[in-house]
Amino acid sequence: MQTNWWQNAVFYQVYPRSFQDSNGDGIGDIQGIIQRLDYLADLGVNAIWLSPVYQSPNVDNGYDISDYQAINPEYGSMVDMEQLIEAAKIRKIKIVMDLVVNHTSDQHPWFLEARKSKDNPYRDFYIWRDPATDGSVPNDLQSNFKGSAWAFDAVTGQYYLHFYAKEQPDLNWQNPKVREAVYQMMTWWLQKGIGGFRMDVIDLIGKEPDRKIKENGPQLHAYLQEMNARVLSQYDVVTVGETWGATPEIGQMYSNPNRHELSMIFQFEQINLDKQSGMTRWDLKPLIPAELHAVFSKWQLALDGVGWNSLFWSNHDLPRIVSRWGDDSQYREKSAQALAIYLHMLKGTPYIYQGEEIGMTNYPITSYHEIEDIESRRVYQQRQQQGYAISDILNGINAKGRDNARHPMQWNGKNQSGFTDGTPWLPVNPNYLEINVELAKQDERSIYATYQQLIKLRKRNAIIRQGRFENVPTGNQNVISYKRMLGEQSWLVIINLSKNRESYTLPIQHFGPNQKIISNNLLLNKIAISGVLQPYDALVVAIGN
Ligand code: TEU
Ligand code: CA
């Protein structure tokens, strides 16, 4: 079977602000990443998705870009960036850049020009509308960061559209000049030798604000096909679209190679399984593992042979997975390993979020003043106005807030966890003395060791990369199971995703030789047709067919 490099690769997301500081200013930087490349090579990853390092006023931590072709001096220089690409290449690691082109910063020269006058050549780079007859907003479109998606600009007396902060005006993709400028910028980066792009909220670019269409607009796929023809098809690169609104059918449209759009997408269907139905993600409810597995199974089957899945638990917008769907107190290591085994035995390209490989946890806060993230601040303010109790607001933010994933990487037990010699921009989680890379690397049964082993298994076994997927019912909503099959080979994965002992019964009549591939429990070697699993037990066995 013909495969692309990115179908055989494991990715690692670096959030540069929090990864490694090299000069003591408390902010992670590009030289810091270079210092840690050997660590990443040793873990076994093949590509880094680098969150934005571009010039930015940092209203949304770099997702508000004021110059796509310059590096934010906090992170270094373009020379540092070129050095990173080169140093990574020596270690066979590709650098995948974040492409944030649904919007720019309001400090981008395009917007500074656009707002000057209605007939400025850059006016139509953005989306402007007259006020409603009573002077109010053109319509009730909402920003994803709360409040209206329209901001009034007094200079010309019109409103402009922003689906995120008002400092992140939306680009007008209907304007061919915008698309042309983006393609040129992408080409400029590709010629520097990067490995591809992660495309920020790419499903918004087909927006039609007058019809109140945000996601999945009518021209979305046409734009991506144009981008592919004009730019991407000339390079052997990966593209992964961030698409909150994708269904499996839409996922196929993006990732079916015959359609020439993207390599794969990040889909988020599982993300809503722990919110109360009809409410926001800040209104919590416990996850039912069977529901999670139903979503993953659906995507595995839907894209098989007609697209490609990405596999991820977390990113810089999501809480730490061990705190979210594992148990970060009693069973931290075991539950983190169970989650890792679950995800990394699926078909698709895995993405590890920095710190996930050592089981880093959420960072609980007790007051508004500890919130750094713009989204959490807005949510706090809005819910306070709506009359929620402060404790409820904080519970929601502690469980789901974006800062959770953004506290500094925990490298060792030294001051500030080895992240910085100065004062970190966000505090280090006090648990760094027990949870850090140095300790994890000394322990052959650590979470880190499991990730390393899973990456090796993936490289050595085509069944993980290419095998068919089949869901296996277990008769227990806390125990999930599936099979992977390739030729004569068949592997069974079984995982207890709860902190209780759980029984299961498999509908499988016959096992061939039952050979252990990986487990997080030394005592667990074989799987029987029925039995009992200890909390967070995870086991993969080859069962013949
Ligand atoms: O995120 C898209 C996005 O919609 C998230 O902000 C989401 O609303 C929320 O965080 C759910 O957890 C991307 C980037 O990943 C994010 O960091 C940016 O803030 C956002 O786009 C705007 O660029
Ligand atoms: Ca620094």
Name the overall outline: globular
Residue-averaged pLDDT: 97
Overall number of domains: 4
User: Gyration radius, to the nearest Å?
Assistant: 23 Å
CATH homologous superfamily annotation of the largest domain: Glycosidases
Decide which structural class fits the backbone: alpha/beta
Instruction: Work out the helicity level.
Output: 25-40%
CATH architecture of the largest domain: Alpha-Beta Barrel
Poorly predicted ranges (pLDDT <50, ≥5 residues)? none
* Ligand names: 1-O-alpha-D-glucopyranosyl-D-fructose, calcium ion
- Our estimate of the beta-strand percent is 15-25%
Feature tags:
545 residues; alpha/beta; TIM Barrel; Oligo-1,6-glucosidase, domain 2; 8-stranded parallel sheet; 5-stranded antiparallel sheet; 15 helices; globular; binds 1-O-alpha-D-glucopyranosyl-D-fructose; binds calcium ion
